[in-house]
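batch_manifest entry 22 of 60
target: Flavin reductase like domain-containing protein
source organism: Pseudomonas fluorescens
requested by: lab member K.T.
priority: normal
notes from requester: please return tokens only, no post-processing; we will run our own comparison against the previous entry in this batch. if the run fails, retry once and flag.
--- input ---
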Amino acid sequence: MNEHIAAVALEKAYRLLNHGPTVLVSARHAGVDNVMAAAWACALDFSPPKLTVVLDKIAKTRELVEQSGQFVIQIPTVAQAELTFQVGHRSLLEQPDKLARSAVELFAVPGHDLPLVAGCSAWLACRLIPEPHNQDRYDLFIAEVVGAWADTRVFRDGHWHFETADPNLRSLHYVAGGHFYAIGEAVDVESKVE
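--- output ---
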């Protein structure tokens, strides 16, 4: 594992996703790994930490999630914009070498049989909470976060530090047609609530 990766306390795991980035979803089942991009992921609860993600019925990753009951949500960086676009527009069903073509490098974290994408700024290992109605009707998956890690160059002490990190470590926010925005500068409000 990379020297800059550190565990994140589960009570702070929601912060890894709370700023609304495009995410990569990875899963493994029966020796098959896949990674896809997703724009619709959201923190759902604090304790235990939960999240939601929309996975379309045509996605091979969805099938792997449903079969294994687990997956990883990771936060790609500006340096991974091309990779993110490629895994979002290629299908493992049509291109069995999709991950190699998209330059995806996977790694593992001890204690979790999950494929994590190298180079991201954060990773959330998730256990699926089966909700067949939501999954079938809305493509909406709910999961409990069972492990979380982040790159300490950009997330430490329970907070993102995009403004002091290398700009290539900023998160991506997808608009459409291959167009992303990188997260911007911090805006702090010092206000007293009475």
